[in-house]
Amino acid sequence: MDKLVIEGGKPLSGTIVIQGAKNAALPILAASMLVKGTVIIDHVPTLLDIEVMLEILRELGCKAEYSGQSVVLDTTGANSWHVPEALMRQMRSSIFLMGPLLARFGEVEIYQPGGCAIGERKIDLHLRGLKALGAHIEEMGNRIVCKAKKLIGTEVHLDFPSVGATENLMMAAVLAEGITTISNAAREPEIQDLQHFLNRMGAKIIGAGTDTITVEGVQSLVPCRYRIIPDRIVTGTVMVAAAVTRGQVTLQNTNPSHLTSLIHVLRRAGVQVAIDGDIIKVGSLSRPLAVERIVTSPYPAFPTDLQSQVMVLLAMADGVSVMKETIFEGRFKHVDELSRMGADIRVDLNSAIIRGVPRLYGATVEATDLRAGAALVIAGLAAQGKTVVEQIHHIDRGYDRIEQMFNRLGARISRYTSVTDNQVI
Ligand SMILES: CC(=O)N[C@H]1[C@@H](OP(=O)(O)OP(=O)(O)OC[C@H]2O[C@@H](n3ccc(=O)[nH]c3=O)[C@H](O)[C@@H]2O)O[C@H](CO)[C@@H](O)[C@@H]1O
Ligand SMILES: C=C(OP(=O)(O)O)C(=O)O
Questions:
Q1: What whole-number distance in Å separates Cα of residue 27 and Cα of residue 100?
Q2: pLDDT in tens, 182-218
Q3: Which terminal residue of the chain has fewer beta carbons within 10 Å of its beta carbon, N or C?
Q4: How many domains, in total, are found in the chain?
Q5: Is the distance from the beta carbon of residue 120 to the nearest atom of ligand 1 less than 6 Å?
């Protein structure tokens, strides 16, 4: 397993272009199965999860190639609706294939998806929604077989605004007969991106970005070319890193309106944030201030995917902050690792009480999941001394070479491969 070695204590400065959004690219690549032909998706980040998605698509009979930052995907020869268990287990997003494969082939055979250990992450809402659309579902241990000669539009109410369930149902409903209404839908920007992509191929969807999405089924779709939105979580990660290192960073290719809740938190912490179109400038010269209470919730509230990164800022802030996690029950694993670096954080059920310390110290720590790993990198950048972050395959799931991204801003991060313990240039 690779590891990152970080020489901390240097303020970040400079300009960076933000990668395309993993959480938009993954469902959009899966949604491409709904059409026969060649789809080109631009600004797709080079990530482990994207590699896995492309591998699955090839396994299903598609041709899928990276060309620069674009993926060229020919779905014409797709002839399988069976996603191998080993690939399903590599990431949560493999579940996005369920809706499109069912819609295209009338049958899908999958397994329980894998992914980061941040909570139970059931798929009951996905399955219930597909049943409402007329699918017959059989669960045999890990294996799930889902069949429907024809999906029929209906009203689906989600008990919780699940991002993945909303997306899966949108994709399943596109070729269904009649109208599907999804109420209590998730409102994340990536859902709007999926709507835009599907509509460009000829789907008839309205309402993404609100809590009610209406899909009018169509007979077929036509291939298109589409550019993925900027990654709001990577944007937020860099913004926090700029703040904790007391640097000055300009971020290009961002959508500031997707980050309203984070910008609000950063400003409360005394961090300077300036917005100019798709550019965000973040600067900080002094120690951040504590933020009394932050609660993670579905969009547009504060995102769970930025909880661990912002905790690093609060760990170094002047005063006591509270961070409440309401989405994933297992998303505080970074707390033990940050404590190794000198942070003073106590977890009480789903709240972390964070007493800010003036500085963190380098240590050897383990990335337990994707965003926890990103938080440890940020902590390492701000800490005094050397930090080693292990298990960084988690980070590679969502950040396109995180060390290169931060090194462009003046950081000193080296990647080592464990097989040879050689530095990767
Ligand atoms: C690829 C992608 O877009 N991933 C994001 C997506 O994940 P994902 O789509 O998995 O997240 P969901 O919104 O579905 O999950 C939120 C909560 O609902 C629960 N749940 C979900 C589905 C279900 O059928 N049953 C159920 O109980 C989950 O266990 C979790 O507690 O949204 C999460 C919440 O913003 C983000 O952290 C992830 O980065
Ligand atoms: C939890 C995340 O992703 P996934 O749903 O792909 O596991 C994330 O992006 O932080």
A1: 10
A2: 999 999 999 999 999 999 999 999 999 999 999 999 9
A3: C
A4: 2
A5: yes
